[in-house]
Batch of 2 targets.
Target 1
Amino acid sequence: MTDTLITGAAARPDAEIIEDTIVAPCAPWSAVLKKGQTLRLIDLEGQQAIDFLCFGTDPHQNQVERYHMPNTIKVPKHIFLEKGTVLYSQFARPMMTITDDSCGGHDTIFGCCSFAVDQVRYGKQNAECCQRNFEREMEKHGLGPEHVVANANFFMNVPIGSDGHVEITDSQSRAGDFVDLRAEMDVIAVLSNCPQELNAAAGGGPSPIRAIIFQ
Ligand SMILES: [Zn+2]
């Protein structure tokens, strides 16, 4: 990782920094954001998928409130995540808003990689998987494996053909591309820096990312 990547234009926002972390290749990460704080995710070397979920810190109607993929697609009638997209919960309440995005076209439908699905689609298993990363990281917040739901995939490119064909293809993200997510409620943000080496999700191989929380 070069200095350019760390100090590039997309690096540190001109704001009060709450946390600034380099997430190692293949590793999970999480943090609690207060309403109004923003999480910046930077693809330091390019073409690195970040599997992402968020949860309300407080239950709503006695349930864990969590990111809900169909509501996030239904409300804007748009299947990709980009600047202006709101991430909705199962209660159709705004959880986070994408306030800036230098890449665009992030995936909503493919969910995360798991040992089980890798075995079925490739006949072998990757060394690590996002499912297990999510489970490990969410356990720290008292969230069990049943809460690993269909997640968002930043910097992952899944074009949808008119014939219905879908497949992970090379990501459009370049070194230093970033996405900003503003918390619309107090949230637990959880991510897996995707370890996948059996498809294009992590480009030429898993690489580090950077997570900055600011307000
Ligand atoms: Zn993955």
Note: Residues 51, 112-113, 130, 192, 194, 196, 201 surround zinc ion (CB under 6 Å).
Target 2
Amino acid sequence: MRLPQQLLALTCPECGTDNPLEIVYGFASAEMFDSALAGLIALGGCTFDDDSPAYRCRRVDCETEWGRWGDFPD
Ligand SMILES: [Zn+2]
């Protein structure tokens, strides 16, 4: 069961588009590159902290990033 703020987190705060790309951090494996090319995830680079965004809007003319890893304990 999702908490309300988690549902909110899955809608772009700028344009309201849902189903955002999850930003994946760390060394990108070949599988991760394939997923990014397929539009399933976004690659966030090798370093991140609790303030790094967790989601990126899938609209290419928006690309708003939001959510923080620290907000999602698991
Ligand atoms: Zn957006």
Note: The CA atoms of residues 12 and 37 lie 21 Å apart.
